[in-house]
Amino acid sequence: MKRSGVTQLALMLSPVVVTLLFATLILLAAGANPLEAFGNILAGAFGSAKKWGDIAVVMVPLALCAAGMLVTFAAGLWNIGVEGQIVAGALAATWVALGVQGPPWLILPLTLLAGAAGGAVLGVVIGALRTWGRVNEIFAGLGMNFVMVALTNYLIFGPWRPPDGATMSGTEPFPLAARMPMIGSSRASLVSIGLAVAALVIVYFLLRDTHWGLRLKAIGLNSAAAARMGINTHREMIVAFVVCGLMAGIAGSLQTTAVYFRLIPQVSGGYGYLSQLVVLLSGLRAVAVPLIVFFFGAVQVGSPRLELRMQLDSSLGGILQASMVLFFFLIKGWRQRLADRKERNA
Amino acid sequence: MLDPLVIATLQSVVASASPLIFAGIGETLTERVGIVNLSLDGTILLSAMAGFAAAYLGNSLLLGFFVAAVVGALVALVVALSSIVLKQDQVAIGFVLTLLCADLSSFIGLPYVRIPGPSVPYMPLGVLASIPVLGEVFFRQNLVVYASYVAVFLAWGWLSLTRPGLRLRSVGERPEAAFARGIAVNRLRYTYAAIGGALVGIAGASYSLSVKLGWSHRHTSGMGWIALAIVIFGGWSPFRVALGAYLFGALKSLGSILQPSYPNVPTQVFQAAPFALMVVALLVVGGGAAWVERYVPAKLQRGILALIGGSPPAALGKRFEQL
Amino acid sequence: MKIELVNIHKRYGAVVANEGVNLTIAAGEIRGLLGENGAGKTTLMRILSGYTFADAGRILLDGVEHHPSSPADAIRVGVGMLHQDPMDVPQLSVLDNFGLGQSGGLYRRRRPMLASLEHLCQRFGFKLDPEAVVGSLTVGERQQLELARLLALGARTIILDEPTTGISAPQKALLFDALKHLAQEGLSVVFVSHKLDEVQSLCDSVTVLRKGRNVGELEAPFDADGLVHLMFGQQLPAGARPVVPIDGGALEVRQLSVRDHRLSLDGVDLHVRRGEVLGLAGLEGSGQQLLMQAIAGIVRPRAGSILLGTEDLAGRPYGAFRDRGVALVPAARLEEGMIPGLSLREHFALCHHCGHGLVLDWPAADSLTREQIAAFHIVGQPLTAVDKLSGGNQQRALLALLPAELTVLLLEHPTRGLDVSSAQWIWSNLLARRERGTALIFTSTDLDELLQYSDRIMVFSGGRVSAPVDAPTVTVQELGYLIGGRGL
């Protein structure tokens, strides 16, 4: 049954509609005006030209991590540890930025390499814990996340604290040589955007057109049979964690060298968990990621305005994002159920 | 006679472990029937907030715990329904719900941040409380902590001694066989998901009303994940799960107790310790058990594996299709 | 109990499982239900026992119409089914499984349950340890437990679906005695099988199904030729045995010890020559699978050597075995052999590395797939997902995915679940490989298959292995005794 374009669009947007209804209920229960709240988010996101730069800034780590996680999901892995991989990348980049002297064309690439390496190392740890330690990667990743956060706090309040004294603002600001160049007066960096786009494109082709991508897919669907067919499942899984770590680590390093220009306690900003939502919502399709990342980014940038203007917690943004994914799954399941019933009665 | 400081520490350990016991036992029941409720961390946050708010607004602790239990059960039912009726992946739904419930708790809970509220009163149990050491530690607590002891024994008794408990176990191990014997597989799954979820809800309320009073942003962060790990670490068996809960409770309490004595050790070590321990514990139960099976002679294996071995219910996370 | 099935129809999508089937069984009768794979026997019995619903038709038990809505519903009206893989919970004990599903109070009272179980066991000569974990029992013992359970619940009809696959000869004798006793007491027994000799020795009468229809009923004593004619439509010529020069050693196994959590196999010696076919006989779970997995490099042996030519591969990683031309085709096709969800084309791309370096060459994979589809007569397209293929086509696909030249090819139950013509095609393909020098080792529970295709047969029983016997000279009886454990 060929569906018209309009019906297709309506079906795709149904999670959005249900999400808005759900959020409306929550807002009403909290005694707030829903329209005013949504309006504030929109204004917060698109109100000025500067905001578009902010959205780009948020989109970068989301896109990088989403790209990385498309790889791990292909292999059937739940890399919740991506959040820790971002932090690991940030720590490694900070170490370079604060410790190494030199001109920008040396330092900046080094920070990127260091970031990638940091994320990759954590990927090896998580992968090893899973393959040889039989520790589910969800717990291995979570454990590492908390450990990385603690490590960050330790460094910020300890060895890397500013000379004036440790504060919650983080380390000393980076020297100019360790800061990525911005586009005009916005906060967006061309390098960051370029890397994010490159990551998505690379992952798209990696999964679709390479042997390795097909092997990952096989492992994700039936790892026992894949092993019988001669695929080295342990190695490929660890490589998948490493690839994701490379991208997440780069995202982490960019957070320090292109966004905050220092290491702050919340350097990963929950982007790891958020990018999981992005990938789930995309149905594991790389082409759907950019649009979702844009939407999530806009919500992320617009939500803080709720606190300013309406005394509402900005977590409404998180509610919108998470419920989008939840309703996406629920509606998908419901439609499949209706389709199955139709087929049975036919 | 033990040093009063040691007694006080042990009391604190038992108290702070009680929410983990509720959550761990609740999730054990849910997983034994075949459902993974990954949303624990978010559910605990949401129910902690809801329980506190309800107790504060209604000026009734009972109402608080009741509301928290209902919240916990509802979230668990969403997971169960999505899996059974809508055929979605339990892990994916659970993960999304974790984030959603956490954000809901922050949003709805904003008016209740850092407000002093009711707390469960201290209630030493007369005669039992005067038993040296054991009595002082276990029976000079509040009602919630006593309830946690009951929960462990009830769960064990239910699973091992009763007919409904046997049916529960069969559903989690081989639902087709259970179905062949007239057991309503999916109905049982809903039931125990709800019961387990209610216990998780009570765990949340016992944080905000007993252990870590009040409400604030991400008040109990991380405890839900520890509870999930405890279920695995405990081999899906109530007494071992309780043991795991006390272990982690000990670690958390130890942090604040030992810190003054070791000022050179950064506080973050104590913060991160429970989660590092979580990974180590799972390593012992996972890779360690596998190593034992492979290299340790068979006669010694049984004893060791009784302590650290344990496989998940065979049908955990798998859907059951009734033809 | 008298059973009447009237005009039963059932289809699964486009496949007709039962078409207008009428069947009447008197109380106290042992009825055999014969037919080849896919004839509709299991579906019909599943309908009778409440596991599924008929699209049309009626069921009458002792003259009263019933619509069993579930297996539990069916046993309540007295119809119990014993599956080929008994519906028990392996992680629970014998006593727990026995009592599970019986109504009663909150607490499980052990003593009455124990007494009931013991009484039934004594009646039939079953020996079951109430505390044993069911997962550790043999298939025969699990059957006995299930039979006891159904009787305890008041079954007046027992349906057995291919019960003798994988049980020992003494267990089979015990089972048949029990069934005869039950029939004398007025229960009706339905014995679903494709084994003519068993049906001949046990049943009072036989119904034959073919392609979903009831094509005939016969009374004992049966004419075997007549039964075969009803089942297949015409006499199948026995395949002629080609004479193939067997020369040179392909594989030698010395003093091999392998273990898994249930079984240990020790001190196995065997040698296989190029072009030779070695059949491994015995009950399932007696060690054949373990040995084959060790030879294929899937399981690591604890001691001993596996020699291919002069090279000892024992202890080497799996890849080393594959590189030397050793391959194993598993019985669980979709669980261990192929990837459900991936297409035929993707499987060939994975196995044959189409393309250079990192990048896949899809057009090359596509044409390779088409070639193989044609060569192996696979009913499917390059883009068909392998889980959508029928069992026979999956098996062909598995064979097509193998490298063209192999030193040793191991097959777990190569024709299980396949109809006769598919089975014959598979064997012709395998024999072609043997002509090119591949040594074949296969397991089977079908004694006829073993006798027809093997050059030598080794019998496994509880972890012990017989010396290889020459297939052309051994008889079915001798083989049966060896399998039963005598003479090992």
CATH fold-type name of chain A: ABC transporter involved in vitamin B12 uptake, BtuC
Strands of chain A, total number: 0
Shape category of chain C: globular
Helical fraction of chain A equals over 70%
Q: What structural class do helix, strand and pairing data of chain A support?
A: mainly alpha
Silhouette of chain A = globular
Query: Order of helices and strands of chain A, N to C?
Result: HHHHHHHHHHHHHH
Class from helix and strand fractions of chain C = alpha/beta
What separation lies between the terminal Cα atoms of chain C? 44 Å
Quaternary class: heterotrimer
Q: Report the portion of residues of chain A in β strands.
A: under 5%
| Largest beta-sheet characterization of chain C | 7 strands, mixed
Distance between the termini of chain A: 14 Å
CA radius of gyration of chain C is 24 Å
Largest interface: A-B, 50 and 43 residues
In terms of DSSP E residues, the strand content of chain C is 25-35%
Average of per-residue pLDDT values of chain A = 90
Walk me through the structure.
The complex is a heterotrimer of chains A (346), B (323) and C (488). In chain A, helix 3 crosses helix 12. Chain A has one domain: ABC transporter involved in vitamin B12 uptake, BtuC (Orthogonal Bundle). With 346 residues, chain A is an all-alpha fold. Chain A contains 14 helices and no strands. The two termini of chain A are 14 Å apart. Chain A has helices spanning 5-29, 34-46, 49-74, 82-99, 104-131, 137-157, 190-209, 211-221, 223-228, 233-260, 271-281, 289-302, 304-310, 315-345. Helices cover 75% and strands 0% of the residues of chain A. Chain B is an all-alpha fold. Chain B contains 14 helices and no strands. Chain B has helices at residues 4-32, 40-58, 61-84, 90-108, 126-129, 134-138, 143-161, 163-173, 175-180, 185-211, 223-233, 238-258, 267-295, 298-308. Chain C is of the alpha/beta class and 488 residues long. Helices cover 34% and strands 26% of the residues of chain C. In chain C, strand 11 (247-259) and strand 12 form a beta hairpin. The mean pLDDT of chain C is 86.
